[in-house]
């Protein structure tokens, strides 16, 4: 059975980044080494949350929900 991880990073500029991967430790090493374009200029990054799923569709749905949560909560402070 394949495992998918939805992860949330807190970046040095206090922004957040989320994505999906099958290999969490490898992906974290890539983020920390600056090998991922989306977080290269926002290092250092810290793992803020990680959720594990057995299907890609569940992971995608969860990531979308997580992103919507952050968008709506950030709008409360505008």
Unreliable residue runs: none
The fraction of residues in strands falls at 25-35%
Number of helices: 2
What is the count of structural domains?
A: 1
Give the strand line-up of the largest sheet: 2-1-3
What class do helices, strands and sheet pairing give?
alpha+beta
The SSE string, one letter per element, is EEHEH
Topology, number of strands: 3
Q: Which term fits the overall shape? A: flat
Specify the helix fraction band: 25-40%
The rounded distance between the terminal residues' Cα atoms is 43 Å
Mean pLDDT: 91
Q: Rg, please?
A: 13 Å
State the major sheet: 3 strands, antiparallel
Family: Belongs to the UPF0213 family.
Pfam family, one: GIY-YIG
InterPro entries: GIY-YIG_endonuc, GIY-YIG_endonuc_sf, UPF0213_domain
Protein name: GIY-YIG domain-containing protein
In short:
The chain is of the alpha+beta class and 78 residues long. It has one domain. It is built from two helices and three strands, in the order ββαβα.
């Amino acid at each position: 059975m394949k495992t998918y991880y939805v992860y949330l990073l807190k970046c040095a500029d206090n922004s957040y980044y989320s994505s999906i991967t099958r290999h969490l430790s490898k992906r974290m090493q890539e983020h920390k080494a600056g090998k991922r374009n989306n977080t290269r200029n926002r290092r250092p990054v810290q793992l803020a949350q990680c959720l594990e799923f057995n299907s890609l569709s569940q992971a995608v749905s969860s990531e979308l929900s997580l992103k919507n949560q952050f968008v709506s909560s950030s709008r409360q402070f505008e």
